[in-house]
Amino acid sequence: LGSSSSVPFTSIFSQLFMTVVVPLIIGQIVRRYIKDWLERKKPPFGAISSCVLLMIIYTTFCDTFANPNIDLDKFSLIIVVFIIFSVQMSFMFLTFLFSTRNNSTFTPADTVAIIFCSTHKSLTLGIPMLKIVFAGYEHLSLISVPLLIYHPAQILLGSLLVPTIKSWMISRQK
Predict the structure, then answer these.
(1) What residue ranges are annotated as transmembrane (predicted)?
(2) Strand segments (E) across 20-124
(3) How far is CA 129 from the centre of its chain?
């Protein structure tokens, strides 16, 4: 096309490593030494985790929709929502088909875990990755819209499918 671009792979890799991998490794090392204390004290990590996730979602929504450069009309947003729900449902259906085929060794409980875990994508990892990879890009807000929709969509679809999947699992276990 007659144009070229350079991507700072070293910088992106090191930022992602420091943002994602290092905290994970440190957490696993620290957990090993304070596991007994954590089991005795039972700090409210679930509530803290939920609050941090909510804060990440809130700040990302604010950054996205407060940006005056975002040019997203309602029709486009509806199309994106429809595409994301369709993709999510397709992924869940395909994982269900693959995990329940005749020569599969998965139990019904395994299948349920596969359906929900394999299609799960989180804002807590996606947003930092977007901010690192697309740092300085003026349309970063627009790029984050699909992820902002995907995360609530997976929660909504998962909660709607729980009764159906639960009854399927119970009927298969009998």
Answers:
(1) 12-33, 45-66, 78-99, 111-137, 143-165
(2) none
(3) 11
| pLDDT exceeds 60 at position 1 | no
pLDDT digits (tens, 9 = 90+) for 76-129: 889 989 999 999 999 999 999 999 998 888 999 999 999 888 877 777 778 878
Contact (Cβ atoms closer than 8 angstroms) between residue 107 and residue 114: no
> Residue 4's pLDDT is what?
65
C-alpha span between 123 and 50 (Å, rounded): 12
CA distance 136 to 157: 34
Is residue 64 within 8 Å of residue 145, measured between CB atoms? Answer: yes
Domain ranges, ordered by start, for the chain: 44-173
Q: What is the largest CA-CA distance in the chain?
A: 64
Per the CB < 8 A criterion, the answer to whether 70 and 135 are in contact is: no
**What radius of gyration do the chain's Cα atoms show?**
20
**Angstrom distance (rounded) from CA 167 to CA 163:** 6
